[in-house]
Amino acid sequence: MRRLSTQDQNFKQTFAELLAFETVNDPQLIQTVDQIIADVRQHGDDHVLKLTQQFDRHPAHQFSDLELTQAQLKTAFDGLSVEIREALELAAKRIRSFHQAQKQEGWTYVDDLGNTLGQKVTPLDRVGIYVPGGLASYPSSVLMNALPAHVAGVPEIIMVVPAPNGELNPLVLAAAYLAGVSRVFTIGGAQAVAALAYGTQTIPAVDKITGPGNRFVAAAKRAVFGQVGIDMIAGPSEILVYAEGENNAEWLAMDVLSQAEHDTVAQAIFITPDEALLNAVEAAIEKHLSELPKAEIAKTSIQNRGALVLVKDRAEAVELINQVAPEHLELCLDDAELMSQEIRHAGAIFMGRYTPEAIGDYCAGPNHVLPTSGTARFSSPLGVYDFQKRSSLIMCSEEGVKSLAKAADVLAVQENLDAHARSARYRYQ
Question: Does one domain contain both 130 and 277?
């Protein structure tokens, strides 16, 4: 794992190169995805089935074999052990409770001219959620995508999840049952995104697609944006851990590795002003790396995109954190809440020494679908607001319209829009 210091002569350039990552700008990838989308639009179910058989080696003989029934979901849920069921239910309860606080209601007020103004908030009609699939899959992603949609009031939630060789983790199906998913299709990749965006003979077109996937999924989401809404273009998972003062190096090392094990292109960065702590964390990472079942993935991740960074002081650390705009940020120090006030860009901030990022992935309550690749500079975690839309409300009174219409008349004339001007003028003359 590379070691850097802000005192190095070429630090700024080296650090910028470390952060650079292109998710979906490969021309060959874009061409492949565009062709898949075009074929799905033209051929519908038949092409989705063909690609699912080809890419996922799914044994389905007809498209109906790709849809799971509510009875199958319930069977998966009923088959859970008590321990797993209670953990899943606890996570669902906390996620739902947190997102209830995000729910927005409409509002109106009457201005001093007697006009009524306001905002109407309505849920989307139908959404699609993409859940990574296979045996190494993520039931937590089901809860994090479906439950905010439910809280928002979305009446229909369509879930797609790839099933390589026809195999699925039953816990994913149990989570879909617990979260109240309407329909589940065992398809994935760009073809699943295209089917959700444009609809097929069986899969209904949705209004928005959320959830993470591989680079084909990310490229497809970008391609269909405009036909449907999307949550974000998700890149590889990221964690940045900052620590100072008395800390357990073993804990910090495992927090770093918790994201490195996700993907060979995941990014894990550790920053501290304490060189002795930096050395201890580096040694602990080396020690624990060999113990992980996904050691090769984590090793490649930290070698290619990881870093141990020695800073002069906290101020330098804050500057670097805001430059990175990390998906996950851990602040492991006494006054973490105070330091968090200086952080402008981060998907989620985990404060204190007893708050590992892993808690946020599963059961803290806030959403784990977070902006990556520096996009926390301008975007936010997935939430109830992603599944609601707002309409402006305007109702002028007979007297109240007069002064507004006169102003609109004047401004429309300046913009050379005569019909606008006359439309307003009729209301006050």
Answer: no
- 219's enclosing H/E stretch is helix 215-224
Q: What is the mean pLDDT of residues 75-101?
A: 98
- Give the structural domain span for 32: 27-113+124-230
Question: Cα separation of 344 and 359, whole Å?
Answer: 22
pLDDT grade, residue 133 (50/70/90)? confident
* Cα dihedral value 77, 82, 87, 89, nearest 10: 50
Strands 388-395 and 116-123: antiparallel
* pLDDT tens by residue, 300-353: 999 999 999 999 999 999 999 999 999 999 999 999 999 999 999 999 999 999
Our measurement of the distance from residue 283's CA atom to the centroid of its chain's CA atoms, rounded to an integer in Å, reads 32
| ∠ CA 173-179-185, rounded to 5° | 45
Q: Which CATH number is 102's domain given?
A: 3.40.50.1980
Catalytic position from the list 328, 330, 357, 368:
328
Contacts of 270 (CB under 8 A, 6+ apart): 240, 241, 242, 243, 252, 256, 278, 281, 307, 308, 309
Catalytic site residue from 327, 330, 357, 368: 327
> Is residue 255 within 8 Å of residue 288, measured between CB atoms?
no
Distance CA 84, CA 77 (A): 10
Does 296 qualify as catalytic in the annotation? no
Residues 263 and 297: beta-carbon distance below 8 Å: yes
Tokens of 171: 């816990």
Task: Indicate whether 149 and 168 sit together in one domain.
Answer: yes
Q: Is residue 381 part of a domain?
A: no
For the entire predicted model, the pTM comes to 0.93
Query: What mean pLDDT, rounded, does the chain reach?
Result: 96
17 and 34 within one domain = no
Q: Pairing state of beta strands 67-68 and 183-185?
A: antiparallel
The answer to whether residue 391 is domain-embedded is: no
Query: Whole-angstrom Cα distance, residue 419 to residue 180?
Result: 50
How many domains does the structure of the chain reveal? 3
The answer to whether residue 282 is catalytic is no
Q: What is the bridge-based pairing of β-strands 388-395 and 126-130?
A: unpaired
Same structural domain for residues 14 and 32?
Answer: no
